[in-house]
TrEMBL record, chain C:
<keyword id="KW-0472">Membrane</keyword>
<dbReference type="GO" id="GO:0008289">
    <property type="term" value="F:lipid binding"/>
</dbReference>
<feature type="site" description="Reversibly protonated during proton transport">
    <location>
        <position position="61"/>
    </location>
</feature>
<keyword id="KW-0813">Transport</keyword>
<dbReference type="GO" id="GO:0045259">
    <property type="term" value="C:proton-transporting ATP synthase complex"/>
</dbReference>
<dbReference type="InterPro" id="IPR038662">
    <property type="entry name" value="ATP_synth_F0_csu_sf"/>
</dbReference>
<keyword id="KW-1003">Cell membrane</keyword>
<comment type="function">
    <text>F(1)F(0) ATP synthase produces ATP from ADP in the presence of a proton or sodium gradient. F-type ATPases consist of two structural domains, F(1) containing the extramembraneous catalytic core and F(0) containing the membrane proton channel, linked together by a central stalk and a peripheral stalk. During catalysis, ATP synthesis in the catalytic domain of F(1) is coupled via a rotary mechanism of the central stalk subunits to proton translocation.</text>
</comment>
<keyword id="KW-0406">Ion transport</keyword>
<keyword id="KW-0446">Lipid-binding</keyword>
<keyword id="KW-0812">Transmembrane</keyword>
<comment type="function">
    <text>Key component of the F(0) channel; it plays a direct role in translocation across the membrane. A homomeric c-ring of between 10-14 subunits forms the central stalk rotor element with the F(1) delta and epsilon subunits.</text>
</comment>
<protein>
    <recommendedName>
        <fullName>ATP synthase subunit c</fullName>
    </recommendedName>
</protein>
<feature type="domain" description="V-ATPase proteolipid subunit C-like">
    <location>
        <begin position="12"/>
        <end position="74"/>
    </location>
</feature>
<dbReference type="GO" id="GO:0033177">
    <property type="term" value="C:proton-transporting two-sector ATPase complex, proton-transporting domain"/>
</dbReference>
<keyword id="KW-0066">ATP synthesis</keyword>
<keyword id="KW-1133">Transmembrane helix</keyword>
């Protein structure tokens, strides 16, 4: 894309912000190398620690601001799990809350200027989604045995249609982790890339005010998207978990 | 395809070849990301399940029980207030009936005094009336006698003036007869 | 020369793939609009259905994101 623009003032590098680089030096990236991924994930852990542990250290009955936020997050996810999966889904609440807090913090920290967004990488979201998929599938078989396959056998449909529906259900079941991961990564990547493209336009004096307004607007949208995507990821996890616990339609 | 998209000055100088195109599809960085992601998730899970979630859950439960306790206390206070109100009402009713009784007693006493005074006054009035009657009777009797005497005298004088000789007895008889008639 | 034609095709394909995002936009608008009209008819039931609303929007949006991804792949990875 930028190849053609090499001579002009415009140069777009919307994808540069997603490059994984080592924190120290220029060596190759081994599996253990501390990279910017490590940095921003560590920042997410620190943020979660500050909010949920340091923020609640008072254990006050009348909460401070930080404690209110922590309780709000707790109550939000707790209610979501309880509403979608039912009472027996609450056993998996810490796991779902971990996913939610990680995604929220990674998304919001990624909105800082010059930041790196771990959740914009397919590798990260694919691991998250595959973890959910494998957990849910194994849990379904452990809890229900072969009855878990009833998820694919729509007993309310006419008998002739059932094999076709079973095939469709099976395909949609295996597409779940794909859409689950690409939705999150794609949303984060798209927003950041669009902001970067507008930032590239800001180099031209005539359109730079417009481009700055556009960046501001996109930034607001991205704040919304950051939260909504974390919410959607979490609630879909809850829905899949409900399917595993109660496979009958 | 010529994807020498990135400036050499960009930080990716070392792996310009790998990071060309979409960094998301740079498979060389996958093990690294996955490793650190797993580390991060385990750290978050550990912190949450060991420290944060029991604490927040405990705080929420405490608050719930405090609210419930306060509500029951408030209910108790309300009940007590209602009892106090009932007692007050009762006291008010008693006080009112006492007052009624006292007023009744006072009225009865006053009535008694009044009756006694009235009776006394009536007796006095009756006594004075009879006294007056008696004196009026006396005065009337006296007056009658005087009239008779004056009439006899006048009759005797008239008889004398007409040249007769007045017989006192006869005159008196004649006057008495006239007065009776 | 041949590389140029391939690149041209990739860019045209990327532009075409972006049209799919319009479909996602229509879908998301449809979901939200229908939710709103239903919510105005029966506001008391609306609060319980926001989760369903977001799931519906997420499903509709995911397809737009897929087409965006295809565009990105054509531009940067092919």
């Amino acid at each position: 894309m930028a190849t053609e623009e090499a001579g002009s003032a415009l140069s777009f590098h919307p994808m540069d912000q997603f490059i994984v680089k080592p924190l120290f030096g220029d060596g190759p990236i081994n599996w253990y190398t501390p990279t910017n991924v490590t940095l921003w994930m560590a920042l997410a852990v620190v943020g979660i620690y500050l909010l949920l542990v340091v923020g609640t250290r008072g254990r006050a009955v009348i909460p401070t601001r930080m404690q209110s936020i922590a309780e709000l997050a707790y109550g939000f996810v707790h209610k979501m799990v309880e509403d979608v999966t039912g009472k027996d889904g609450l056993r998996y609440f810490p796991y779902i809350f971990t996913l939610f807090m990680f995604i929220v913090f990674a998304n919001f920290l990624g909105l800082l200027p010059r930041a790196f967004t771990p959740t914009s990488h397919i590798a990260v979201t694919a691991v998250l989604a595959m973890a959910v998929f494998l957990t849910v599938t194994i849990l379904g078989f452990v809890k229900n045995g072969a009855a878990f396959l009833g998820l694919f056998w729509v007993s309310s449909a006419p008998l002739a249609l059932r094999p076709v529906l079973a095939l469709i259900e099976l395909i949609s079941y295996f597409v779940r982790p794909v859409s689950h991961s690409i939705r999150l990564a794609g949303n984060m990547m798209a927003g950041h890339a669009v902001i970067k493209v507008f930032a590239g336009f800001a180099a031209v004096a005539v359109i730079s005010p417009l481009s700055i307004v556009a960046i501001t607007a996109m930034y607001g949208l991205e704040i919304l998207v950051s939260f909504i995507q974390a919410y959607v990821f979490t609630i879909l996890t809850c829905v899949y978990l409900k399917d595993a616990l109660h496979p009958h339609h | 395809m010529a994807t020498t998209t990135h400036d050499a000055a960009g930080a990716a100088a070392g792996h310009a070849a790998e990071s060309a195109g979409m960094p998301q599809l740079d498979f060389a960085s996958f093990p690294n990301q996955i490793f650190w992601l797993v580390v991060t998730l385990v750290a978050i899970y550990w912190v949450l399940s060991r420290i944060a979630l029991p604490r927040i859950g405990g705080v929420l439960a405490d608050r719930q029980s405090a609210i419930t306790g306060d509500l029951t206390a408030a209910e108790e206070f309300k009940l007590r207030a209602k009892e106090a109100e009932a007692a007050y009402e009762r006291a008010l009713v008693e006080a009112r009936s006492d007052a009624q009784k006292i007023v009744g007693q006072a009225r009865a006493e006053i009535q008694k005094d009044l009756d006694a005074a009235t009776a006394h006054a009536d007796a006095e009035i009756a006594a004075r009336a009879s006294e007056s009657e008696r004196r009026i009777g006396e005065i009337r009797a006296g007056a009658m006698e005087a009239v008779v005497a004056v009439a006899r005298e006048a009759a005797a004088d008239i008889v004398a003036a007409m040249g007769g000789k007045a017989d006192a007895k006869a005159v008196a008889k004649a006057v008495d007869a006239r007065l009776k008639g | 020369m041949e590389g140029d034609i391939v690149q041209m095709g990739a860019y045209i394909g990327a532009g075409l793939a972006c049209m799919g995002m319009g479909g996602a936009a229509v879908g998301v608008g449809n979901v939200a609009g229908n939710f709103l009209s239903g919510a105005l008819r029966n506001p008391s039931a609306a609060a319980g259905q926001t989760a369903t609303l977001f799931i519906g929007i997420a499903f509709a949006e995911a397809l737009g994101i897929f087409s965006f991804l295809v565009a990105l792949l054509l531009m940067f990875a092919v």
